[in-house]
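In response to the reviewer comment on reproducibility (Comment 2.3), we provide here a single inverse folding case reported in full, input and output, so that an independent group could reproduce the run without further information from us. The structure tokens appear first.
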């Protein structure tokens, strides 16, 4: 009986796979690293073949851990970062690197989501004020696909002439697994300016404005999309052999990784009015907050509202931070007492902070104030050029000094979340509970701060990995184990624990927030000086 599922999550640094039963129980999990090449001018590139290799290794290892045979797997689902994969007309990798122009080094064929090479292209599109931008908070981010494709066409014309496929990374994975070039509504709606509310889907006038009249043909992009929970087809014989599965396994339409996390933590609310009062906070290298509404509630700097990006007849909106876990890593690397920010070093820092807080309480790190925009500000400023600010540094190079800086960085990141939430409220959103997913659930500092700084109830899911769980929910529907996402969300939710804000800390964090907003104003004043 095919009654189990495989979920694959491809992040910035690794591919992870999990094996789930139809109740959402995680039976096996594995991870393998993926390579990333960093270049000048904020370039960052992956190799899609390297990603596929890590995916296959992870699936094989997770399946082995579960003790299941391939014929027990009903479906496989994929979620991934919104990176852009470029393939030639034969489906082979095509380099996106300036360094490889004119050479045969086509392995680096993927522009990573965090790559900001397309800032000038995004600026030009945003200056045009096309109506399409209303569905992306009034502006496109250089992390989205249309600006990246513009950059590719303008800067690598020889490569553009050879292009035959353009994929969001999740769609590449389903294509690699099944051979089907179908695309997910989730990816095209959120990152490609596709509209599921119109018959055509694409706005040809906007594409012409971007100089991409030929992009649909060049990228083999469809005029229709597959809803989350749909089947793309069965595993191809080649992919089945590489993954250690068989051709009886269905491939589910892909998801953006953050939206998979939102499904994983909010699935139990699907089909209920409660869904609109809940918000998913997915934290990892970057962080985003995701909300769902039945009515479109657009707002400046909020990505969306995207129709049916996950749930049918619902709009999705996202507010996000470009660097969160990445910023904590950066602080650890930057400080004299730091080093390589591995799990053990983070654990030591968090443990020492707990000791210091016992002694110093809310005064820990007093005088240190941080704006965490070290990789731009997605929300609520929609400014990819924004930079970070640290006020209050001294000559302290001790480990305790690092811990104070780390603690205040955590505070600043959640102050940024509060800034996003309060902005969302001005557009009509009413959020009561934050549901956490991603790596931040393993950092107790961030968990408690999310409640205390925002003043909202925080729910931490009992599921070991909510992002993988959300992808498994979508696969369960595609594989016929559950009728729809509402049923899958309720059946596979594993419960969670609630963390309530502590009233005695409210004044201290309110003061921090006022300073946080003042720093935004002061930075703007400095930048405005001739």
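Designed residues, in position order:
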């Amino acid at each position: 009986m095919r009654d189990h599922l495989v979920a694959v999550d491809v992040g910035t640094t690794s591919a992870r796979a999990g094996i789930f039963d139809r109740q959402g129980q995680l039976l096996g999990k594995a991870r393998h690293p993926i390579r990333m090449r960093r270049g000048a001018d904020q370039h960052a590139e992956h190799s899609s073949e390297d990603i596929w290799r890590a995916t296959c290794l992870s699936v094989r290892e997770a399946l082995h851990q579960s003790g299941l045979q391939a014929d027990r797997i009903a479906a496989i689902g994929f979620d991934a970062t919104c990176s852009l994969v470029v393939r030639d007309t034969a489906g082979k990798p095509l380099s996106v690197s300036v360094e490889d122009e004119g050479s045969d080094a086509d392995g680096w064929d993927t522009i990573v989501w965090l790559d900001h090479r397309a800032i000038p292209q995004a600026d030009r599109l945003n200056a045009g004020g096309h109506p399409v931008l209303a569905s992306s908070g009034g502006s496109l981010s250089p992390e989205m696909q249309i600006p990246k494709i513009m950059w590719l066409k303008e800067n690598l014309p020889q490569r553009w002439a050879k292009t035959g496929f353009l994929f969001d990374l999740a769609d590449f994975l389903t294509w690699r697994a099944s051979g089907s070039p179908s695309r997910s509504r989730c990816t095209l709606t959120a990152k490609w300016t596709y509209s599921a509310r119109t018959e055509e889907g694409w706005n040809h006038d906007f594409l012409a404005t971007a100089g991409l009249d030929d992009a649909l043909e060049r990228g083999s992009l469809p005029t229709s999309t597959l809803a989350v929970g749909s089947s793309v087809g069965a595993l191809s014989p080649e992919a089945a052999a590489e993954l250690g599965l068989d051709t009886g396994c269905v491939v589910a339409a892909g998801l953006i990784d953050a939206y998979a996390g939102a499904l994983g933590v909010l699935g139990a609310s699907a089909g209920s009015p409660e869904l609109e009062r809940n918000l998913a906070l997915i934290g990892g290298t970057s962080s985003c907050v995701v909300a769902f509404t039945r009515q479109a509630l657009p707002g400046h700097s909020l990505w969306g509202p995207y129709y049916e990006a996950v749930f049918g007849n619902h709009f999705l909106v996202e507010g996000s931070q470009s660097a969160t876990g990445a910023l904590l890593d950066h602080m650890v690397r930057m400080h004299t007492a730091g080093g390589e920010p591995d799990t053990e070093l983070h654990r030591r820092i968090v443990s020492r902070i707990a000791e210091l807080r016992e002694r110093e309480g809310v005064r820990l790190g007093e005088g240190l104030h941080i704006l965490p925009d070290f990789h731009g500000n997605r929300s609520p400023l929609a400014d990819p050029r924004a930079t970070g600010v640290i006020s209050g540094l001294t000559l302290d190079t001790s480990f305790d000094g690092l811990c104070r800086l780390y603690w205040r960085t955590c505070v600043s990141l959640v102050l940024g979340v509060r800034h996003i939430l309060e902005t969302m409220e001005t557009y009509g959103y009413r959020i009561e509970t934050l549901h956490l997913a991603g790596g931040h659930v393993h950092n107790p500092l961030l968990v408690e701060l999310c409640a205390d700084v925002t003043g909202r109830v925080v729910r931490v899911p009992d599921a070991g990995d909510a992002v993988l769980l959300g992808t498994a929910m979508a696969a369960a529907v595609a594989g016929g184990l559950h009728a729809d996402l509402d049923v899958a969300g309720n059946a596979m939710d594993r419960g969670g624990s609630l963390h309530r804000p502590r009233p005695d800390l409210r004044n201290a964090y309110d003061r921090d927030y006022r300073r946080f907003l003042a720093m935004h104003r002061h930075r703007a004043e400095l930048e405005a000086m001739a």
